[in-house]
């Protein structure tokens, strides 16, 4: 499948024999090519409309339910067997540099005895590298459509690796921010955004383990025995991705808990300081309030040195409270 910038939804359609490209095909020539022994047809579609998918269905004899899924898109990753064909849904992922957000697309694969159809929906990255890599290794491409399926799955799974590594780096940086500055208010929002990305990745990657497991079994048609070991390599990558995603989710959960705990400790420290200063202000306020009542029966109002004594009492009281709070580390 080639660049999404091309207007033609049929990106490439060709017949392959003996691991080499035999001829380019139009849609009308597909049935004749399928009738030739020793070759298979590989057609790539990019955002095809319903009419084109129905035409392709007639050429390859695809099942109605599988075509409905390909038309509607928005399917979860899965593998389904329909009579003499296999239908697989894969999710592609890319992190947009401008926004840092994850964007997902879908790739639907129809696999038959002598054909493979790839239908791309909403994927920002083209699959041109898959076809070029397969054509550059004719001794492997000679295994047929099953090897093309492996190459496509390997290509899509490899797209997740740099995304997960980038998230790992961001999690490490975020941990440093949380520990160095517990009052960083944007750390919580970043943690939630990263956790959301990891959940989305987990939803796209996790079902692929079941897909690979089924492809490794001999009950799935059209996968040659010599091609099945290649899917074990994809399975290993998927397991490693799942473990890494789970580990980063646990780290983010721990970072969030640590961040909230450190914020609580920091707030308690601030409250202790505020309480200490309020206590020191309360003593002179109390003394001044008593002397401000101006009752005639108050003997202290007629003291010659009453004003000076009250000031000294205020200063000494505040100094004593300050020393006490300082020793208890409230200030």
Task: Give me the secondary-structure topology.
Layout: E1 10-17, E2 20-24, H1 30-34, E3 39-46, H2 50-60, H3 64-72, E4 78-82, E5 85-95, E6 102-111, E7 115-121, H4 128-135, H5 138-141, H6 145-180, H7 186-216, H8 228-291, H9 306-327
Question: Quick one: how many beta strands?
Answer: 7
From the N-terminal CA to the C-terminal CA, the straight-line distance is 67 Å
Order of helices and strands: EEHEHHEEEEHHHHHH
Helix tally equals 9
Mean pLDDT: 84
Fraction in beta strands: 15-25%
Shape: rod-shaped
- The H-level CATH homologous superfamily of the largest domain, spelled out, is CorA soluble domain-like
CATH topology title of the largest domain: Beta Polymerase, domain 2
The amount of helix comes to: 55-70%
What is the architecture of the largest domain at the second tier of CATH? 2-Layer Sandwich
Question: Could you say which structural class the secondary elements and strand pairing correspond to?
Answer: alpha+beta
Radius of gyration: 35 Å
Strand order of the largest sheet: 2-1-3-7-6-5-4
The stretches of 5 or more residues where confidence is low (pLDDT under 50) are: 1-6
Question: What do these coordinates show?
Answer:
- It is a single chain.
- With 331 residues, the chain is of the alpha+beta class.
- The chain has 2 domains: 10-261, CorA soluble domain-like (Beta Polymerase, domain 2, 2-Layer Sandwich); 264-327, Up-down Bundle (Methane Monooxygenase Hydroxylase, Chain G, domain 1), CATH 1.20.58.
- It is 57% helix and 16% strand.
- A 7-stranded mixed sheet has the order 2-1-3-7-6-5-4.
- Helix 4 crosses helix 6 and helix 7 packs antiparallel against helix 8.
- The longest helix is centred in the last third of the chain and has 64 residues, at 228-291.
- It is rod-shaped and about 120 Å long.
- Mean pLDDT is 84; it is low at 1-6.
């Amino acid at each position: 499948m080639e660049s999404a910038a091309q207007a033609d939804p049929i990106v490439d359609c060709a017949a392959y024999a003996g691991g080499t490209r035999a001829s380019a095909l139009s849609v009308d020539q597909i049935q004749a090519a399928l009738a030739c022994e020793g070759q298979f047809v590989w057609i790539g579609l990019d955002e095809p409309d319903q009419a084109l998918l129905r035409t392709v269905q007639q050429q390859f004899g695809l099942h109605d339910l599988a075509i409905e899924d390909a038309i509607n898109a928005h399917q979860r990753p899965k593998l389904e067997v329909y009579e003499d064909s296999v239908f697989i849904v894969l999710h592609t992922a890319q992190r947009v540099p401008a926004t840092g957000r994850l964007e997902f697309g879908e790739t639907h694969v129809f696999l038959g005895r002598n054909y493979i159809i790839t239908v791309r929906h909403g994927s920002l990255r083209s699959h041109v590298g898959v076809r070029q890599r397969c054509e550059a290794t004719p001794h492997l491409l000679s295994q047929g459509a099953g090897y093309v399926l492996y190459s496509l799955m390997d290509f899509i799974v490899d797209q997740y690796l740099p995304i997960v590594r980038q998230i790992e780096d961001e999690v490490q940086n975020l941990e440093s921010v949380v520990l160095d500055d517990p009052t960083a208010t944007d750390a919580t929002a970043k943690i939630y955004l990263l956790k959301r990305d990891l959940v989305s990745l987990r939803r796209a990657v996790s079902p692929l383990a079941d897909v690979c497991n089924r492809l490794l079994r001999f009950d799935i048609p059209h996968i040659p025995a010599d091609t099945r070991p290649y899917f074990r390599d994809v399975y290993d990558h998927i397991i490693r991705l799942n473990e890494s995603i789970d580990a980063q989710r646990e780290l983010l959960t721990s970072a969030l808990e640590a961040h909230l705990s450190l914020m609580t400790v920091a707030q308690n420290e601030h409250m202790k300081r505020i309480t200490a200063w309020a206590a020191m202000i309360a003593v002179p306020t109390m003394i001044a309030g008593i002397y401000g009542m101006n009752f005639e029966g108050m003997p202290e109002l007629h003291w010659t040195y009453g004003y000076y004594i009250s000031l000294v009492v205020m200063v000494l009281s505040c100094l004593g409270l300050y020393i006490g709070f300082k020793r208890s580390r409230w200030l």
